[in-house]
Write a structure and sequence with these properties.
GO terms for molecular function: DNA binding; DNA-binding transcription factor activity. InterPro entries: LysR-type_TF (IPR050389), LysR_HTH_N (IPR000847), LysR_subst-bd (IPR005119), WH-like_DNA-bd_sf (IPR036388), WH_DNA-bd_sf (IPR036390). Belongs to the LysR transcriptional regulatory family. Residues 9-66 form the HTH lysR-type domain. Keywords: DNA-binding, Transcription, Transcription regulation. Strand 3, helix 6 and strand 4 form a beta-alpha-beta unit. The protein has a six-stranded mixed beta sheet. A three-stranded antiparallel beta sheet has the order 10-7-11. Strands 1-2 form a two-stranded antiparallel ribbon. It is α/β, with parallel strands linked by helices. Helices cover 40% and strands 20% of the residues. The two termini are 39 Å apart. The chain has three domains: 3-88, Arc Repressor Mutant, subunit A; 99-171 and 279-334, 3-Layer(aba) Sandwich (D-Maltodextrin-Binding Protein, domain 2), CATH 3.40.190.10; 174-270, 3-Layer(aba) Sandwich (D-Maltodextrin-Binding Protein, domain 2).
Length: 335
């Protein structure tokens, strides 16, 4: 594309040409564009120079387009229609939209959210392709650079001003162990008991930036330094299967045990801490997408699905309800 030639082009000339074709009269064309007849005549002169053709000849009934003008007519109508469509804004229809969205999402959240999201999208946006990644370093930089459309993760301690956030909910971390684990005998196991067992770790990118670390630095320190890690993986199902088959322990959200097909054979135990600990999950997007109908529509659907994570349980039976506090639907907040 020769952008230098385009930079010298005045789009108003094409608008004037279209009006001249419709009116076939200089004064009437001038009236429609709210300019003087003299200015319209000068514009016609510039058009003749641009296309190297008279474009119109005079007759007793007005101006008659030349063959070159008629040849240009359909092309210019198409160009102006496209420009008008661009400046008028996108018409977004989920049913017919074809495109791709890329989302970074932790496996903790993905195992609950993504099947429900894809079920919804197959009904409402069947042509949309979704790519999800669970192991993405520098997620905020990827959002900025366009490598990601959304990130769903544990809230960070700090975000730059160009990011928009929506709360998806919160939950309390627990210890996940197999049913029949020796720790089950203690309703609230202490650290002396916990450190007797090896630990499985699920890889999480940029863990040092998480807001959670500020809340429970002591708990993480004890897990990292006092409890022996024997296995790390980025695959949640693999980690849970190791816990299910051994006496290993793993820290995670309690809602994983609420799904029989996934958390069967596992149980949750509270962490030995007196602090009120919350894992806050957020949906993050860069401000470059804030005027995109697609991104706003999909964000609303994701936030709406976070309501599915609520688990109605009596507090005495299980104080650790999944995503017990959900965010306000459809409202972006600045970081």
């Amino acid at each position: 594309m020769d952008t230098r030639q385009l930079a010298r082009m005045d789009l108003n000339l094409l608008v004037a040409f279209q009006v001249l074709l419709e009116e076939k009269h200089v004064s009437r064309a001038a009236d429609r564009l709210f300019i003087t007849q003299s200015a319209m005549s000068k514009t016609l002169g510039r058009l003749r120079d641009l296309f190297d053709d008279p474009l119109f000849t005079r007759s007793s009934h007005g101006m008659v387009p030349t063959p070159r003008a008629l040849e240009l007519q359909s092309q210019i109508q198409g160009v102006l229609s496209q420009v008008q469509s661009i400046t008028a804004g996108q018409q977004f229809d989920p049913k017919t939209y074809e495109g791709e969205i890329s989302i970074a999402v932790s496996e903790y959240v993905g195992v609950v959210l993504l099947p429900a999201l894809m079920q919804l999208l197959q009904e409402e946006a069947p042509l949309l392709r979704v790519t999800t990644l669970s192991r993405v370093e520098r997620q905020l930089d990827e959002l900025t650079e366009g490598g990601l459309d959304f990130a769903i993760h544990v809230r960070r301690s700090h975000y730059r001003p160009e990011f928009n956030l929506q709360n998806l909910g919160s939950t309390k971390p627990v210890l996940l162990v197999r049913k029949g684990h020796p720790l089950r005998r203690q309703r609230k196991p202490d650290w002396d008991s916990i450190i007797q067992f090896p630990r499985v770790a699920l890889y999480m990118p940029n863990v040092e930036e998480m807001e959670l670390i500020d809340q429970v630095g002591e708990v993480f320190y004890q897990l990292e330094h006092d409890v022996r890690e024997v296995f790390e993986t980025s695959h949640l199902y693999t980690a849970m299967e190791v816990v299910r088959r051994t006496d290993c322990i793993m820290m995670g959200p309690p809602f994983l045990t609420d799904f029989a097909q996934f958390g069967g054979g596992l149980m949750s135990l509270p962490l030995p801490t007196h602090q009120e600990i919350q894992i806050n999950y957020v949906l993050v997007a860069h401000k470059r997408t804030e005027n995109s109908p697609l991104h706003n529509w999909l964000a609303e659907k994701i936030v709406g699905l976070s309501q599915l994570f609520n688990v109605e349980l009596e507090e005495d039976d299980n104080p650790y309800s999944a995503f017990g506090r959900t965010g306000q639907r459809g409202r972006w907040t600045r970081s």
